[in-house]
Write a structure and sequence with these properties.
322 residues; alpha/beta; Quinone Oxidoreductase, Chain A, domain 1; seven-stranded mixed beta sheet; 15 strands
C-alpha cells in the first residue's frame, strides 16, 4: 500500500510517500481502508522527534482517520462495510490502517469522510477539556485562544453547542470570520485581548480559558478569569512553556487545569466510546461540523504538515487518501 513515511527527523519536508506493507492487525484490531486522514500538530512535532512518543524510524505518522471497515473482531462495535472514524494513534497517513476496537467510532450518514477525519483528536480533546476538566456549565463565558486553528475551532463550536458564550482570540480577520461561523459571539486580537475581554464582560472576566497556545499570553489569560475561573492548558503551539506564580491562583480563587486527554484514556480506554456517545447527537444534528481549511492528496502530505508548522492553516487540514 502507499503511505507517507517520516524517514529522518528534519521537519515536514523529510516526509516521503512510498510503498509499505499493509498493517498486520492484532486480534482486537479493526482494519480500515482509509479515505481521509486528519493532520495534527503532534504529526508536525514527530517530524522533528519533539513529540513525547518517538517511534523508531522510518514510521508512518497520522493519528486520526476516516474510512470503511475491512475487518473487525466479533466483539467490536463496528462491522465490515461500516463508515467509521478512528484514532489509531499512528499509521494514519496510509491507504490502510489497523486501530484498536475501542478507538473506532461509527459516523452519521450526513458526515463526509473528510469531515469525520477531522474529529477524533481535536473534538475528543476539547470535549474532555470542557466537560470533564473544565466542568463547563451552560451560560458560562469561554475565552478560546488560537480560535482559527483545529483545536480552537473545535473548542468554539463545542462550547457554543453546550450553551456557552464564546470570545475567540484570532490573529487575522479571516480566522475571526471562521470563529464567528463556528459560533463565537465576539472576536478579539491577541494584542490587547485582556482589555477587550474586560470590556466585553463588564469587568467580570471569563469563566473558562481554552489555551492551546501558551507563550506570553498566559499571564494575561489568568488575569481574564472571573473568581473560580479555570484556565485549561491544552498545548504550547507558541513554543514557550509558561510558568505561573501560584499566589495569583490563591488570591483570586482561580485554577490552572492540565488537559492530558491521551494520558487520561490510556488507562481508561472505554472512555473514548463514552465521549463519542455524548458527541454523536451533536454530530447528527449538525451542531458539530469541523471546518475544513484545506485538503491535500497523500502525495502532498509534506505540504499539509508545513501549513500547520507555519501556522498558516485556517480550520482543519486533511489528507485525501482515496
Amino acid at each position: 500500500m502507499r503511505a507517507a513515511q517520516i524517514v529522518t527527523l528534519d521537519g515536514p519536508s523529510a516526509l516521503r510517500v512510498t510503498d509499505v506493507d499493509e498493517p498486520q492487525g492484532a486480534e482486537d484490531a479493526v482494519v480500515i481502508d482509509v479515505h481521509a486522514a486528519g493532520v495534527t500538530f503532534p504529526d508536525v512535532l514527530q517530524t522533528r522527534g519533539l513529540y513525547q512518543y518517538k517511534p523508531e524510524l522510518p514510521f508512518v505518522p497520522g493519528t486520526e482517520v476516516a474510512g470503511v471497515v475491512r475487518s473487525a473482531p466479533e466483539d467490536a462495535p463496528v462491522r465490515p462495510g461500516d463508515r467509521v472514524a478512528a484514532f489509531p494513534g499512528l499509521g494514519g497517513f496510509a491507504e490502510t490502517v489497523a486501530a484498536p476496537s475501542h478507538a473506532v467510532f461509527p459516523i452519521p450518514d450526513r458526515l463526509s469522510f473528510t469531515s469525520a477525519a477531522a474529529l477524533p483528536m481535536n473534538y475528543l480533546t476539547v470535549h474532555f477539556a470542557l466537560t470533564r476538566r473544565g466542568a463547563l456549565r451552560k451560560g458560562e463565558t469561554v475565552l478560546v485562544h488560537g480560535a482559527g486553528g483545529g483545536v480552537g475551532t473545535a473548542a468554539v463550536q463545542l462550547a457554543s453547542a453546550l450553551g456557552a458564550r464564546v470570545i475567540a482570540v484570532t490573529s487575522s480577520s479571516e480566522k475571526g470570520d471562521l470563529a464567528r461561523e463556528m459560533g463565537a459571539q465576539h472576536v478579539v486580537s491577541p494584542e490587547g485581548f485582556r482589555a477587550e475581554v474586560k470590556e466585553l464582560t463588564g469587568g467580570a472576566g471569563v469563566d473558562v480559558v481554552v489555551d492551546p497556545v501558551g507563550g506570553d499570553r498566559f499571564t494575561d489569560s489568568l488575569r481574564c478569569l472571573a473568581p473560580e475561573g479555570r484556565l485549561l492548558v491544552i498545548g504550547f503551539t507558541a513554543g514557550e512553556i509558561p510558568t505561573v506564580k501560584v499566589n495569583r491562583l490563591l488570591l483570586n480563587n482561580i485554577a490552572v487545569v492540565g488537559v492530558g486527554w491521551g494520558a487520561f484514556w490510556a488507562t481508561r480506554p472505554e472512555y473514548l466510546r463514552e465521549q463519542w456517545a455524548e458527541l454523536l447527537s451533536l454530530l447528527e444534528d449538525g451542531l458539530l461540523d469541523p471546518p475544513i481549511g484545506a485538503t491535500y492528496p497523500l502525495d502532498d502530505a509534506a505540504t499539509a504538515l508545513t501549513q500547520l508548522d507555519t501556522r498558516a492553516a485556517k480550520g482543519k487540514v486533511v489528507l485525501r487518501i482515496r
